Structure formats: C-alpha cells, structure tokens
Amino acid sequence: MEAVGQIAKPRRVANLDRKREKREDAFHVLGLIPEQKITASLRMLAYGASADQVDEIARMGKITVLESLMRFCSAIEALYTNEYLRTPTPRDMRRLLRKGEMRGFPGMIGSMDCMHWTWKNCPSAWQGAYGNRKGTKSIILEAVASFDTWIWHVFFGVPGAQNDLNVLAQSPVFDELLQGNSPRCTYTINGTQYEGSYYLADGIYPRWSTFVKTVPHPQTEKEKHFAKCQEGCRKDVERCFGILQARWAIIRAAARMFDVEALRSIMMTCIILHNMIVEDEYDYDGVDEYEPDPMNNSRTRIYCAHDGTEDPVQHEPLERDGRYNELIVQRYTNVQEPYWHVTHQNDLIEHQWGLHEGEDN
Fold first, then answer.
1. Tens of pLDDT along 276-315?
2. Angle between helices 62-84 and 34-47 in degrees, nearest 10
3. Fewest CB within 10 angstroms: 75, 137, 169, 340, which?
4. Under a CB-based contact definition with an 8 Å cutoff, are residues 176 and 182 in contact?
5. Under a CB-based contact definition with an 8 Å cutoff, are residues 300 and 101 in contact?
6. Is 207 in a helix, a strand, or coil?
7. Are 116 and 132 in contact (CB under 8 A)?
8. What is the enclosing helix (H) or strand (E) of 332?
9. Element spanning 139, H or E
C-alpha cells in the first residue's frame, strides 16, 4: 500500500477527474476533498468493504462512495494502463529469458492460468453464460505471470462455458505472434534450435508449441525430475493469484456489482496496483541466493531481435497483401502443431536432467 501512495498520487488522479475537486455548494459549504474519496475507494478495494461500511469512516453517502470507486478505477486505468499493463519491452524480454534459462527452461517467459471470481449478484438473464462447472456464477480471469508475479497479460469477463480452453479460444494472447509483431528470440535446447518463447501451463491446455506442460504420469527418473521442475516453476501464476487476492480483498470475496464493465474496471485496477507494488518491492538487481544457478552448465544461447543482437532465424515480413491471410494461417498452424510440443518437451526433459546431473557432480 505504501507504493500505491507514492505512485498513484491523489492529485494526479484528481486532476484527471474534475469531479474530484473540492467545490462549494449553493450555500458556499465546501464538499468532499479528493483524498477523502480516494481513501474510501482504496478501503473498498483493499478490505473488500461494502459502501455501507465505508460511509461511516469516510463521512460519505453510499451512492457517493460507489461513484467515487468507479471514477477512481477509471482514472487508474486511464493513467497507468500503458505503463503497468504493457507487453514486455526488449529489456523485459532479456530479463525474463535470462531468468527462464537460470531455472532450466530456456525460452520460457512466464506461466499461464485462469482464476475464477465468484459473482454473487449475477443478473438472471446472464446466469447461463457465467456459470462454471460447480454450478456457481463466476467471471474468469486469464493471466500470464512471470517469476516476480508481474502480470503481463490479462483477459477478463468473457461469457460462455467457464473453463480454461473456452477462454483460450477467445483470448488475444497470441495475436501479436500471429501477426508477426511479437519479440523474436532463438535458443538451443539439447542440440535443437527453437524459435519463439513459450509459457508453462497445466494439463488442461492443448499441446501447442507455445505451451510446455508437465508429464502427467512420469515413469522414469528423468520424467519425474522434469515434472517436479515444471510444476514448481508453473506455481508462479498460482502464487500471483494468491497474492492478488490477499492484497485486494474485493476480488477474494464474491462480487456484488451488477455490471460486467464495472467488475472489469475493478479487476484491471487491482492488477495495475499489484504491478505497481511488485515494481516497487522486487529487487531486480539482487542475487538469487536460494536458487541454484546452472548457467555454467547450460549450452543455450538466447537472441532477442529488438536489442541489436543478430537473430539467426528471421520471420517473414507480414504485409497486408495477398499473402496476409496465408501467413496468418501458416503461423496459426505452427502454433497448434503437437509434434513440436512433444519434441520441445522431450528436449527440455533431457536438458533438465543434464543440469541435475551437473549439480550432483
């Protein structure tokens, strides 16, 4: 919360919303100050308090508290979305790729999973679209989180059967990749050269080249070791969801709003503030004292095309001509290729086992 006070300055939020200014009424009585409204909004987000609970502390009416909350969320989105919900920059990509290689997963830039937010006051007309497999009404959040629990991708509020596969089918997470605009990286695992980063995912996700999943029933020692490493690193996104719900109690409890757009704005605000705190608290220059560093045993090489380094594998330029649709279909087919998923997984199993033997020696 201290980082929020330093970054989300009340005056900057108030300047964006003219209604937050302290004004006089017809009897020349001063109204509520901007800090008062922002305090009420933060109390609702951080403690999950209802508007009736906040109005006693902030000396504000229930309607004013709810209006202040939505205006605060809109202001946070307008001011900080481009900075704290951005796609990875070249510097971010180098850091993520370097960290992935240190953990034994060259080319890995994060973990992907979904989280449900129970919707208590879901309108009757929408209950069929927002029902999950347990029979309760909820809205699902798809997110990609890195090792520091920074959230890089967010997709929230999609209607339909609430499971990870249906959300993935509508998610724009791979749009930049299909259009050829994603950062390009090339790396070598177990003597095989691969192009393009990937995410760690659980068993429900399909066998795509952009996902690396665990071995469901490991038999050999190599598979058991790989499953332990993959499941341990994939917990980054689970840990991120836990921190997000612990830090912002409003998304831990059942949602009481009636509008999907209001819930979306609240969720985006909580994620932006979460990334602010991560940036303020995480020591990116520190050394991982409790994590083995297998860099000396690794033969992988990483190239990031945006940093001026030579990239031995180049993408075809994606121009809006007759080949535009052809290239989109070709890249979409490559993403969904199960062969590369299995080959990638087998090479990572050998790579992880080689690092494990190197540590034992």
1. 999 988 777 665 544 444 333 333 444 444 444 433 333 4
2. 80
3. 169
4. yes
5. yes
6. coil
7. yes
8. helix 324-335
9. strand 138-145
